[in-house]
Amino acid sequence: MIEISNLKKSFKDICVLHDINLRVDDGEFCVLLGASGSGKSTILKILSSLESFDSGSIKFDNSEFKNQIPSSKDRQIIMQHYSLMPWLNAEDNIKFALKCSGIKDKNKLENISKKYLSLVGLGNISKKYPHSLSGGQCQRVAIARALALDPQVLFLDEPFSALDPVVRANLQNELKDLTKNKQVIFVTHDIDEAILLGDKIVVLHNGKIIKEIKNPKFTPNTPKYFELKSVIYKLINGEVDNIEYMI
Ligand code: ADP
Ligand code: MG
């Protein structure tokens, strides 16, 4: 379980996160949704040890942290631009991450990297370098690399925003399957993506959580779906600061 309480963060004297309170249960897929600049990436960076915070507390299961979270192999982040090592092929990108996490045995490295590349449908391109892979394939390698470390918690920061719609739709569906039983915090500014993926959608505006919507499951392109979408649209654009929306 992840529990964020009264989290505050400023850059110089500008407050970018105001009293964030958020809980993500085991196995829950939580989507952080908000316009550009609303504070989504800052929350993920704090949770994945890339940024400190000013006050409040963050708990992962029974460990509580203040100011800075130590890095751990149990928490992995996937960024928008997949951050693969360009000088390593797909398989070696995964092996490198595994080595950094302490795995030394050659057979183990081989087996784990093969297993996760196959899992994301890339068993046949394991020797290719990032520059010769498509954006969608690079993002799959990044997902395979993160999953290979078997983290309990996965953070994803707009991982599909650079991909074309068909590749994106395929990866969205695969990601849901691949992350069953993990805690996921997925950041997006895309309302459809949030509704499709989220067990819970947390709407951010100007560094504040203004709404949580649980189980937003509706068939796309139905009247109810459009109604929900328009409610969320108003929230992320700050046209209203809370709507009592019953689902
Ligand atoms: P989002 O991911 O929702 O687009 P961010 O978390 O990246 O938003 O940014 C939230 C706010 O914090 C923005 O106003 C941004 O300019 C500011 N910000 C983010 N990182 C820094 C930084 N390292 N230094 C100064 N301001 C920052
Ligand atoms: Mg961002």
From TrEMBL:
Q: Does the keyword Transport apply?
A: yes
- One MF term from GO for this chain? ATP binding
User: Is the keyword Chaperone assigned to this protein?
Assistant: no
**SUPFAM superfamilies from the entry?**
P-loop containing nucleoside triphosphate hydrolases (SSF52540)
Taxonomically, the superkingdom here is Bacteria
Coiled-coil blocks: none
Entry keyword set: ATP-binding, Nucleotide-binding, Transport
Enumerate the spans annotated as ABC transporter domain: 2-231
Q: Which PROSITE patterns match?
A: ABC_TRANSPORTER_1, ABC_TRANSPORTER_2
**By what name is this protein known?**
ABC transporter ATP-binding protein
Per the UniProt record, the source organism is Campylobacter porcelli
